[in-house]
Request: fold
Amino acid sequence: MSDNESVSDPRDKWTAFHFSLSNPMGVDQGDVARLLRAGADQLDALGDIQVADITFNTEPTEGEDDLSLTVYYHRKPRRR
Reply:
């Protein structure tokens, strides 16, 4: 069976996936720990994956910094 025949999800044709998160605008949008916890929760929800890279970005605003987190991953079990 070829790789294309075993596709169970149309997204599986891609070799890498990603998701991005940010805190809601307003009070606590600059809360780094809150954003990291949200990223960890999302990773837990994805299950056993291989994380390829995590980027963290800070954009200064008039109030608190606007934070974002992007995780790049592969949908296969992580190497142990």
Summary: Residues 13-74 form one domain. The mean pLDDT is 86.
